[in-house]
Amino acid sequence: MAPPQATRDLDNPYVHQMPNNHILCAFRNHDLGNGPKEDPTWYRITITTSSDLGATWNFLTQAIEMPGGADGPWEPFMQTGIDGNTQLYYSKETGAGGQDSIIRETTDNGAIWTPERVFTGLDTNARDGMLGVARVAKDSPTKVAIFESGTDGHFIVQTVRSTDDGKTWEPTRYTVSSNPGWNAGAPQIIRVGSTLVGSFGTNEKGGEWPESAMALKISKDGGETWTDETVVHELPAMWAGLIGLDDTTFLALYETGGTSYAQKMRLG
């Protein structure tokens, strides 16, 4: 009998339409070992491409790959810069509970990526992860990155700002959701008109983390302050996401009971 073989851990996909109308899909693509924890033996963020609106896909590149161990990349996100370059964001473990937020760019539609730049986590031992990014206005160089940040097993949701389209990031962290009694994480952010909408999972009303309900907050000052919380769906509503429809409406997305749902919402 052949010995057990490592398996692939395919998850965290993110699709992004390029200025040339091709679509990129970035996702984690890790090899798993055979131990009780199935720790990754090899890490990858793989990028595939489609030129026919997603009907067929082809391998493009490994944006990052590295040996397994305590440290590895997770949860890619992409956005087109004002200069037309495509920006790739992901989280990268640093050992002992730490994780940094990374940004890279491509000028050739995803084939080659610039070296990593850390923009949160470098000066902390917090576990920053599950990134999302939104501009404060159309074509504005000012944008906000949202992420969960965890220490000692407790997770909160925070943001940081860039005023030069991601070249540099301000050190100030703005807190979206934080309470010692529960966790908040797996966030996402979009702009709806002139308002930023942030979503996240929270177990404030019960559940063993990361089992959570989906909650929303909004910001009208570019992410510096956030409104009181609105619960979109009670526990369980996992891995919340957002899609803007127009200047007043958006979709709130979540999974419950193994089924995915999209709920249309309107700003008041």
From TrEMBL:
Domain Sialidase: 6-233
Signal peptide: none
Pfam families: BNR_2
Protein name in UniProt: Sialidase domain-containing protein
Xref: CDD domains: Sialidase_non-viral
